[in-house]
Amino acid sequence: MTKSILFVGVGGQGIILASKILTEGLIKFGYDVKMSEVHGMAQRGGSVTTQVRFGEKVYSPLIGVGEADVLVAFEKVEAARWISYLKEGGSLVVNDYEIYSMPVLIGQEQYPQNTLDELKSKVENLKIFSAAEVAQDLGNIKTQNIVLLGALIKALGLENLDWEGVIKDNLPEKMQEINIKAIKAGMNI
Amino acid sequence: MRKIMSGDEAIARGAYEAGCTVAAAYPGTPSTEILENMAQYKEIYSEWSPNEKVAVEVACGASIAGARSICAMKHVGLNVAADPMFTMAYEGVNGGLIIVTADDPGMHSSQNEQDNRYYAPHAKVAMIEPSDSQECKDFVKYAFEISEKFDTVVLFRITTRIAHSKSIVELKERCEVGVKEYKKDVKKYVMIPAHSRVKHYEVEERLARLQNYSNNCPLNRIEWGDKKIGIITSGISYQYAKEVFGDSASYLKIGMSYPLPDKMIQKFAKAVDKVYIIEENDPYLETYVKSLGIECIGKEFIPICGELNPDIIRRALLPTEEKKSYSVDVKVPSRPPVLCPGCPHRGLFFAMSKYKDIIATSDIGCYTLGMMPPLNIADTVICMGASISAGVGFKKASEKAGRDSKVFGIIGDSTFFHSGITGLIDAVYNKAPMVTVILDNRITGMTGHQENPGTGKTLMGEDAPIIDIESIVKAVGVKEENIRIVDPYKLEETQRAVDDAYKATEPFVIITKQPCALIKEVQKRRANMYCKINDEKCKKCKACLRIGCPAIAFKNGKIVIDRSMCNGCTLCQQVCKFDAIEKVGE
To answer: Which Pfam families does the entry mention (chain B) (predicted)?
Structure first.
């Protein structure tokens, strides 16, 4: 059975690194994996997605509407933007974090205030927390992407695999300790 | 050894394993990572060329010298490079020659959605299309063999989802083929009309042989499943088709898409009840299949515009129930890409925004984003290098109409080297009193920081001469008194230059010099710098919001600057009339 994970957020939030570590881990644990990411203009502060699909044999790297088993939103209105991709009964992980887009910053559009309430009232399997606060408590706010990855791994039920080893294989030595803490903190939320 | 690789990485690996010796490219999404990855293989000479035409010509020369050679570009890059490709199709090769075209269905980072498969029949060269990363690697080897066996250029066509999707690849050792001997052969390599006339016959004859090969080669294969539906498909569309139909259909998977395997298609079509053509963008396969007199279903249900995905195919071709999902009652604001916090382009655009009547003919790069509110600096964007030349035309037409249009052509350093220099020559030679602004941020920015002729480094990490933009501008003939070099982080200085340019009656050039805020060394150097609001002094006039910096927001009745985003460029401080913004760190 193929599983589909959609990462959504804003260019520059570290989505690609989080999905890369997930992908490397899934391969290490014996899955066929396809991952698709967006480069170029969209990365400049725009809404970005990374898609990961894994299972015994995967064909399409893309996830359609109503097909994601897990949706991980690195920013909360991005959760609302992409919610239609989450399949009924799927899990939603939301970083309680706001990034205003330019139309909001210059007053052309409003940043909605009801996002979390709406998500809570509609989605059953839902985890909302501030990855930034967790990462800050660990000592490096920049690890919030790995905290979110930890929460995703828990949502997938894959927390018993050797993710510490995966981090060690894929990050430079000086970044390993803090990111191992981050991924574990994410799994324990 | 197995490794997860993007299609781009796998193409580089394939070239390495196939004994390729020379590789050249100009960066362009989604092709950029091919050469970025090529550079790790020291057996291959890899270069960033100033533009795609140069890259193809470098590869052509290397092939004639006897080396297996590859060049890569995004789809629109092949327009620039079409000239050498069309003639090289006549000359043929010595060492195998591959031209990679990376198309961008969905236009994730492109100005049009052209389908470059048509280039193969147009130029009369073989074409190959892989469907995943493993095939990217394997097909490069086939492509070199086909190129040498049939004495042809091979067009290697991928799309964004092949280039930037990752899947598992089995790695092998490099097969050293060396550089073949070069023998002078003017009838083959000097295309004067007398030689070309002979060559055209050879090209036609070669296509017939290639078609025979296409009918019998392992790149095209039939996968039998249920025979009620037979699907003809290629590239990423094959993966989507498999995802949707699984074993409930048979597949003719095309890997060599020019010349197409006519006999194989006929055999396949006869064996199935109904033929579906599943392909992205234009009806390239469909038109050919129909020309064989075969009835098929394709673009009447599957859209030409935009990127394909399994969902679209499912809805188009199968009776499907809507997948159950969620919806929320949230008014989601749009989130277009923007100039980064600390982007050096912002200062120039802000200075220009004082004049509401400037016509800005812009170009391809991060600075295209100057078009977004609140800066709104761009009237036109066409293609790489068009800023200056389109500005000349706009100015000339305006003069004829008796309009005093102030035309500013906006171009980045890498784009200037790519194809802006000729435009500037045109402006000087034909006396177009327009302004050219060259935004020199010391890097090729939008594609993710590649070296260029102005950066002093090559793709392979060697030191290189810095091609000096100011010297070029002077050499082209722009008068010294009509050149301004400014630091765009300094608003007053930048504004003065824009004011002078606005009044100019001769070709005028502003060069802004400040490195991209995302360059690693710049980030390190400015890591402790940021600006903050002094709440007591802030009158909430929101003047600072007019520079369009994503780090500055009006939240909960206060102006705030996000410290993690700010790099202390101080543009906001310079526009604040109440001294309410302070800079921290040096």
So the answer is: Fer4, POR_N, TPP_enzyme_C
The pairing of strands B508-513 and B435-440 is parallel
What is the C-alpha to C-alpha distance for residues B372 and A111, in angstroms, rounded to an integer?
Answer: 18
List, for residues B317-365, the tens digit of each pLDDT value. 998 778 899 999 999 999 998 999 999 999 999 999 999 999 999 999 9
**Do the chains contact at B325 and A87, CB–CB below 8 Å?**
yes
Inter-chain touch B30–A39, beta carbons under 8 Å = yes
Same-domain check for residues B147 and B259: no
Domain boundary among B488, B506, B522: B522
B555 pLDDT exceeds 70? yes
Answer whether residue B326 is part of any domain: no
Exposure b/e, A74-86, CB count within 10 A at least 16 = b: bbbbbbbbbbbbb
CATH number at residue A69: 3.40.920.10
Q: Which domain holds residue B399?
A: 345-522
Q: Residue A7: what are its φ and ψ, rounded to 5°?
A: -95, 130
**B204 shares its domain with B242:** no
Q: Is the pLDDT of residue A44 over 80?
A: no
The answer to whether residues B382 and B462 belong to one domain is yes
Residues B184 and B312 in one domain: no
Instruction: Please tell me whether residues B160 and B75 are part of one structural domain.
Output: yes
**How far is it, in rounded angstroms, from Cα B502 to Cα B496?**
10
What number is the ipTM of this complex?
A: 0.93
Per-residue pLDDT tens digits for A130-160: 999 999 999 988 899 999 999 999 999 999 9
B306 and B370 share a domain? no
Q: How many domains does chain A have?
A: 1
Q: Do B340 and A101 touch (CB under 8 A)?
A: no
The CATH number for B578's domain is 3.30.70.20
Residue pLDDT, tens place only, B227-244: 999 999 999 999 999 999
Domain coverage including residue A46: 3-187
Cα B179 from Cα B185, distance rounded (Å): 17
Q: How confident is the model at residue B304 (pLDDT cuts 50, 70, 90)?
A: very high
Residue B336: inside a domain, yes or no?
no
Q: Distance (Å) from the C-alpha of residue A11 to the closest C-alpha of chain B?
A: 8
In DSSP notation, B417-452 reads: IIIIHHHHHHHHHTT---EEEEEE-SSBTTTT-B--
d(CA B58, CA B52): 10
Q: Within an 8 Å CB–CB cutoff, is residue B447 touching chain A?
A: yes
Q: How many domains does chain B have?
A: 4
| Helix ranges restricted to H, B66-175 | 75-91, 119-123, 133-150, 160-163
Q: What residues of B are designated binding site for [4Fe-4S] cluster?
A: 538, 541, 544, 549, 566, 569, 572, 576
- B333 and A CB contact within 8 Å: yes
Cβ distance B435 to B355 under 8 Å?
no
Q: Which of B300, B317, B334 is the last residue of a domain?
A: B317
CA distance B244 to chain A (A): 9
